[in-house]
Amino acid sequence: MAKAADKIKGSTRKSYGKITGTHLARAKEQGYTLTPKGLADYMRKLANSGTITKSSWYKLRCAIASTQDYGGYKDAADRLRALKFPEKATPKAKPRRAKIITDQDFKTLRDTVADKNDTITWAYLTLCRQLGCRPAEVQHVSELNGEFYVPSAKQRADGRGLDRFLTVDDPAALFEIRKAMGIVGSVEPLKRKTLHRVAQSRLNRTTAALWPRRERLPTLYTMRHQMGSDLKSSGLPPEEVAAVMGHQSTASASVYGYKVSGRGSVAVKPTEATVAKVRKVCPASSARFKKATHFKKAQFKP
User: Fold this and answer.
1) How many C-beta atoms surround the C-beta of residue 34 within 10 A?
2) For the chain, does the N or the C end have fewer beta carbons within 10 angstroms?
3) Distance (Å, whole) CA 298 – CA 302
4) What is the pLDDT of residues 151-178, one digit of tens each?
5) Domain range 103-281, CATH architecture
């Protein structure tokens, strides 16, 4: 019977081997023996250190266990796979992303990735900033008769997400959008599915190098938040703001951006047909809030 480790792809095994090598060296430096018990103790200590997220810990456990299994150390692999992230442990907090980016920072960021010849990240930054789309939507953006179609990555029957058609009246922005679409479109379709993760990973390294002392660094989603700020400060009706952001309800825009941080104008506008699909809903009276209130009343009814 083939071992589980034998089914791992070569690229994944290579990645696991690199991660494992780094942590085995750290474990040895910290006085842990490279035995089944020693490795398990190291993983327990790491889980309780507050320096690693829960998901990263499980990824590391999988990497070390698979590497040990592939090397013939089944006892160590089985012992590691039996470990669970402690319920009382305090995992490392995920870094908070910035919700604002100035024009100067955006220019610096995009110029930096351009200097690296990182066309993919440049394209994602451009489309997320100019169209306000979600990173996962970028690969599906298309143009039809001068209108840009952005299918929603979060469309649901409960009222979330909206496919939208957008127009752009700024020639410079229009040129950049089409150039970025050409870059994304040149990538093989199968590889496009995870392209936003590749772009975000590269962006993380770039922003950390550019602004090492900042607590909140820009992400691709920061571009969407900034679009929300720009829309709120532009004076557009709530229905148009929701339409550009890809929301079925005007209430959803409240979580994106700040009016005081906006530029006061936007180059993108939704089509009338897209705006017509938006519902004007007040957060306090939306169906989901009513449902929650009724549930609580029924729960405590004598």
Assistant:
1) 14
2) C
3) 9
4) 988 766 555 678 999 999 999 999 999 9
5) Orthogonal Bundle (1.10)
